[in-house]
Amino acid sequence: MSIVTLPDRSLKPKNLPPSSRLLNLPPELLLQVLSWLDPPSFSIVLHVCKSIRDHASSSRTLLLHQINKVPGSTKTLNPQESTIRLLSRFHRRATRHLQHGIEVNTDLKFWTTQEHTINQRQSTLHLCPCLQNDHLWIAEIDQKEPRVRVYSSKSGCAPQLLKVLSPHTMMSMYTSPHEKPEIFFKVLMVAFTPSPNPEKCCDKVSVLYSYELQPTLINCFIEQAIFDAQFRFKLTTYDLGQYPVMPDGPNVYSIEGRGRYPTALITPNMFTAIITWKDADNSNQISTVEYHLHKRLKADGSKLNPMIPTTADGIDLACEERINEEHVAFLAMSEEGEDPPYPFTAVSSMKQFDNSINIYHPKSPVPFWRIPEAVIQYGWRVESIDHLPSECELRESNGEFTGKNVGLPIASHHEHRIFQHEHDPKTFDCMNKMLHLAVRVTKRSSCTITRPYLVTALEVVEDCSKIYLGWNLDHLEHRIVAELHGMDFDALSTLGIISTVAHSGRRIAMTSWNRVFIWAVNPRAFIDGRKSFGDNHEILKTETEYRANQSTWGHSYYENCLEDGVVVLNAVELPSAGVVYSLEFQSDNVLWAWTDRGLVQWKFDRFCSARRQTEVLGQCRHTDMSGPKPAGSVTCTTQELTDEFKQMKRSSLEDVEMGRLELEPNKTEHCDGEFELWFEAMEMENCESAES
């Protein structure tokens, strides 16, 4: 019996109905659909579709509706403004609050190196305290040589190689030119030292080395040196000035580290180095090494090897500085008698904040310990930083609690003579307010839950004295004003949380493994009365009325972000660029990181358009016009620079015609210094043409 196979009808072509396109809808219905989009989606649609942009540019009602969805003050809006100005206002406000689709439009740039032995985990980023042109220092550690390459980056310019630090250069100044020391160094940590003048850039960099001796000649001196090298570290201070090393050689200090391993290094000034250690018993320890740069000691003859012109450990003792004093303190995870909220883990990092030292725990985005400025200079101690009380304690105190600074200070504000004194109507009191990034740690049966918050601190003064971020005041009254959502703090990797705050306080970035989250914050909305209370600011005349409305700080500005009476700020996740080891803001819209893929830069300003670039670190494309060029740097010609910025200006003018950008008279819009460089390039081109 034969089997008849019927043809498969699914293979026959079918006449599909025409697809309904969004642009085929009537304009009224299309505008109604666009009104339901959130600001990030609306920004992306305007960026990718010219037809929708034309429809949106003709509807004043739609633009006002989208502007009101973004946090901000509504008093500055004029419903009679032109649609072009309203569209420009929407872009500026959306960019300020990171609601312009940076999840898709962020520019991502990778800086690769020709070396394959770069230690990205120990390489560091440091924002210069001078804050001139958003100056960022970059330290790249090469473990093979070992070498430390120091780069300098300013806004609008690529990183430029300034120094190459090598311990072999240091040793060549004190050894015979025919002798090759058999010492193998390893770079452990790098720290930049701020200048005594806060207006100047960092002038020194410190490198912590461990070393191993493998000599061919063995005697009693060499054997003792080999044994001592297992427990000794070398802290070397290099100069970032004009010379490759200091005129009289780098300063070398021997640090005994028997039974402990360094976990973090910071140099708050040119005479102090603070090192945190992890002991063999898994306990945390911190020590401060104080030294003097101009006191030198003669070498001890008993430690010299008469067979070799250098000392037993390969570095002349005459170039070593005597450690004046070493203070050691153990980091207590909690008060005595209490269970620690976190397990005993080594310190993750240290950062200098307003001349104070903040010490971070791997599982907390805010500092866990703090060293005040005065304590560093005149005999120091380590103090713990409090966390937020539990929800039950806050509920009993009506949401307020009094104590010292909690978490990390972000911004401060002074309001001068804002209300009358309750007992003397002729006198007026001032008010100091501070905004903190704090966490609440809740310990459950088998886990620890961490949640970040924004907390305001209040202080009433009569003598018009201001408050500064580095102060530790015990009498401040605190209240939670906002919650940070969007990141899971309960499922973390072994690297923990790496956090950083922009210098302006308007950006907060946190990362866990390969995910980077950013929160946009306007500190003035929580601590400035005119922005915090909106139209009700003029009604608050007494201190009692002011404190009664403290729970509503920021509600007028963040009207669209309220949930259960609390401002909720959602995070924005940046495109992944690998496992993150260190993080630093160069400006509000430029973020740098060292990842397992190398040096990475995220840029999410108004002009970002999802560009992906890969460049070689050390070869800059833009000319640094701020000073002399380092030897060996690659720069482009003036004509190439002019052509590049001509193309950028031409694209910006196209944005003006399409309504995406508005350049108002007497007000220059800057894109991280790019327009400034373009104008300087044009002036250079005019000068060259005039001379020719």
Can you walk through the features of this model?
The chain is an alpha+beta fold. Among the domains are: 23-100, no CATH class; 170-330, no CATH class; 394-573, no CATH class; 638-691, no CATH class. The chain has 15 helices and 32 strands. Strands 18, 19, 20, 21, 22, 26 and 27 form a seven-stranded mixed β-sheet that branches. A five-stranded mixed β-sheet has the order 29-30-31-1-32, with no helix packed on it. Residues 19-67 form the F-box domain. This is F-box domain-containing protein.
Q: Major β-sheet, in short? A: 7 strands, mixed
* Structural class determined from secondary elements: alpha+beta
End-to-end CA span? 98 Å
Count of individual beta strands:
32
Helicity range: 10-25%
InterPro entries: F-box-like_dom_sf (IPR036047), F-box_dom (IPR001810)
Pfam family, one: F-box-like
Protein name: F-box domain-containing protein
Organism: Patellaria atrata CBS 101060
Keywords:
single chain; 692 residues; alpha+beta; seven-stranded mixed beta sheet; five-stranded mixed beta sheet; 32 strands; 19% helix; disordered C terminus; F-box domain-containing protein; F-box-like_dom_sf; F-box_dom
Overview in brief:
It holds the Pfam family F-box-like. This is F-box domain-containing protein. Helix content is 19%, strand content 32%.
